[in-house]
Amino acid sequence: MSLPSPEERFAPVALATTPIRWLRAVWSRLSRLLKVVPLTGLIGCGGDGQIPSTPGHDQSVSGISEHPLAVVAAKVGTYPALVKSGAGYFYDDVLEYRVWMHPERGAPSLDEEGGDYFVAFAQYEKALAFSKASPGAEEPLVLVRQMEYINEPEEGVYEAAKDERLTEWRVEWLEGSKRQPDSIEKFLREHGK
């Protein structure tokens, strides 16, 4: 599995055409880590990393899904906003799908500062439909829980890690990445450890 570099993860920031646009894009990304702004069920990020439960998140599930459903649908929208980004190579549970909204790209603004926020879903297809229908929306990301995963302290150096870690992933990384009892050992053997 190929994970994006920080440059790829923040490509929209790096591609801004002027210093002012670049600063605004950086601030937009950082602002979602600094505040909680609930309004009509939509939530912004909180400095304490906690998001209160809200009826605006979609905890419903219907039909067959292309990707795993949230492990506990009733908890969708209650997970911390401040989580890791990418990495680990394996996941244990899908917690929710998140659609990040950007007022500077046309999403409704929830406050005077126009900070980014997200809407959480229990099912990928509902998150994708919301994303496609909403101005200023990113494609869905998935929030996963890792109980055991691969840590890569430096490029090409892999080590097994055991602790609970919440991280946002690209949805396509789910395929083939559900941790099995021998996944970590097999990965380390295949990568020379």
Give a short overview.
This protein has 5 helices and 6 strands. By secondary structure, it is α+β, with helices and mostly antiparallel strands.
Describe this structure in words.
It is a single chain. The model is unreliable at 1-55 (pLDDT under 50). This protein is 20% helix and 24% strand. It has a six-stranded mixed beta sheet with strand order 1-4-3-5-6-2, with helices on one face. The chain has one domain (6-190). It is α+β, with helices and mostly antiparallel strands. Strand 5 and strand 6 form a beta hairpin.
Distance between the termini: 17 Å
Task: Detail the poorly predicted runs.
Answer: 1-55
Overall 3D geometry?
globular
* Radius of gyration from CA coordinates: 17 Å
Coarse structural class: alpha+beta
> Approximately how much helix is present in the residues?
10-25%
Major beta sheet summary: 6 strands, mixed
**Average of pLDDT:** 78
- Helix-strand pattern: HHHEEEEHEEH
Could you give the topology of this structure?
Elements: H1 6-9, H2 11-14, H3 19-31, E1 43-44, E2 84-85, E3 93-101, E4 117-121, H4 124-133, E5 141-154, E6 157-170, H5 183-190
Parallel strand pairs: 2-6
Antiparallel strand pairs: 1-4, 3-4, 3-5, 5-6
